[in-house]
Design a protein that fits this description.
The chain is mostly helical. It has a domain of 197 residues: MetI-like (MetI-like fold, Orthogonal Bundle), CATH 1.10.3720. Helices cover 68% and strands 1% of the residues. Helix 13 runs antiparallel to helix 14.
Length: 304
């Protein structure tokens, strides 16, 4: 009979490592923000979704009316005007902010005298409060003594004409937000290795070829982020509209968020205002999903 060799028993500490205890410390650090987020962001959003299906004036018990608030959109000319103005505002503002932000970032990324001062000068408007920006541009765009008309040599009724009032809001918005996009593009440009530009110059590529064949392809992730944030912010424009025109004259500068404020806090129809907010949320989610899908297909070549 074959005798098996005798083996030592494996110590329990070696056979089964000690169980790792759960560390609650990181969650305690983020707990104050989570409480704030749930109480003032997530909670009100869920409540607003429920209010959209009711008839409620902030007093008394909400009356459940189902989809009736959403069925009114097709017969509400003010909602249609607000949606149209928001789309036009976004269609003009987003390309301007993308192109100008990239142009400033490209120019101020080069080593030249006064580069830091230029960066500060472009970014400073973004840190100014929106109400201050609105009051400032109300003065600048004044028909009679505004500096814009003084330099143009014309009396353009920027904020009092239904034909051009929205363009005045667009001008103020671009001046206010272009510095933020510039900073994002600067961060993306500084992540591109300098060796790639050196190799392109050795191959005989000029400045335009370097920009189109090196900078733009490698800047695609940053461009996607900037485009997404700019579209979202443009659809949510409110501060400058509220301060400069309050949605007027008529409905020429009325936007979706301004309409939500008007319906909710002036006519006290919180059910219908919440329904408009839900529609705005659905639009933003749809645009974000479409943009993400197009980016994945174009950048990686793989269909999402």
């Amino acid at each position: 009979m074959r005798v098996l060799p005798r083996t030592r028993p494996v110590p329990a500490s070696v056979a089964a490592p000690p169980r790792r205890q759960f560390n609650w410390t990181p969650y305690l650090f983020i707990l104050p923000y989570l409480i704030f987020f749930v109480a003032f962001r997530f909670g009100p959003s869920i409540a607003g979704l429920g209010i959209a299906f009711t008839n409620w004036s902030a007093i008394g018990t909400p009356e459940w009316i189902g989809w009736r608030n959403f069925e009114v959109f097709g017969r509400d000319p003010r909602f249609q005007a607000a949606l149209e103005n928001t789309i036009v505002f976004t269609a003009i503002t987003v390309p301007l902010l993308i192109v100008l932000g990239l142009a400033f970032a490209t120019f101020l990324d080069q080593k030249r005298r006064g580069r830091d001062i230029g960066r500060v000068a472009v970014f400073v408007p973004y840190v100014v409060m929106s109400t201050v920006v609105g009051v400032l541009w109300t003065w600048l765009l004044d028909k009679d003594f505004g500096l814009v008309n003084v330099y143009l040599g014309r009396e353009i009724p920027w904020l009092v004409s239904q034909d051009v009032a929205l363009y005045g809001i667009i001008l103020a918005t671009v001046w206010w937000n272009v510095g933020y996009n510039m900073v994002l593009f600067l961060a993306g440009l500084q992540d591109i290795p300098a060796e790639l530009y050196e190799a392109a110059r050795i191959d005989g590529a000029n400045a335009w070829s370097q920009f189109t064949r090196v900078t733009l392809p490698l800047l695609a992730p940053t461009t996607f982020l900037v485009l997404l944030l700019t579209i979202i912010n443009s659809f949510q424009v409110f501060d400058l509209v509220f301060v400069m025109t309050a949605g007027g004259p008529g409905t020429s500068t009325l936007t979706l968020v301004q309409y939500v404020y008007t319906v909710g806090f002036q006519t006290r129809n919180f059910g219908y205002a919440s329904a408009v907010a839900v529609v705005l949320f659905i639009i933003l989610i749809g645009l974000a999903l479409i943009q993400t899908r197009l980016y994945r297909r174009g950048y990686s070549g793989v269909e999402a």
